[in-house]
Amino acid sequence: MGTIVLKKRAAAWLACLTALTASACGEPVEPDLSAYNAAGPAEIPVEILGELDEQTLEKLVEEPKYVALTFDDGPKADTTGRLLDGLLERGAAATFFVVGQQIPGNEALLRRMKAEGHQIGNHTYSHTRLSKAERDTVVEEIHKTEVLLQSVVGAGSFWLRPPYGAIDTQRAALVKTPMIYWSVDPQDWKLLDAEKVVQAAAEAVKPGDIILLHDFYPTSVDAALALIDRLQEEGYAFVTVEELFRIQGVEPQNGVLYASPVRTRGLN
Ligand code: NI
User: Fold this and answer.
1) Residue 45: what pLDDT?
2) What is the 3-state secondary structure (H, E, C) of 169-222?
């Protein structure tokens, strides 16, 4: 994925640099990439290379900055569907922590997530605060969603995001997958204002972050897509949480709560 982003960016730069009219630079450019696919990264003609300053050259060759968008509390027919359309359009992957009771009736959305390269995780069956639940309830809340997910998208490891990020040591010991917290929380559910959410997330984000959003609200979908557009311009590439761990060379452990691949969150 990283190479594709680099190619796209390099190709967009080239389209812009070689354009005869200035207007080509102001609009989103979707260049024909077929010429670049066979030979690896885009080749930059020598006559153009000579024109570029060092900073621009660095931008062309820099590694993408990886970040993971995560969406909780779905799937929800209208909002999740629109989000998937937008992610596909932008070549961005994401991770969905789904609530089990939201699955019936939305199976097609889950199959689409899987088919389009997104990661699916578990957000319990009924959005239960696990840190206050009985042991049996903790196990059941996770298991019911796992069974449902398996029946819809097949076997897999469905990492857990505990609702409210709340789980204690004793109950975490019951969890047989890694647990994912977040490192950037723009409070989309509270702000319900796409522009403010984009602002909050863009100010806080750095490479390797896990961003918390909710595909339950139309404003959050708007925010997510605008945020992707903005951060892709800045050289960010959007990967699943699993890919983010792989890229950083971290093997996540079961029952551990991660704020990012390199930062765990303490349990009570
Ligand atoms: Ni939630």
Assistant:
1) 63
2) HHHHCCCCCCEECCCECCCHHHHCCHHHHHHHHHHHCCCCCEEEEECCCHHHHH
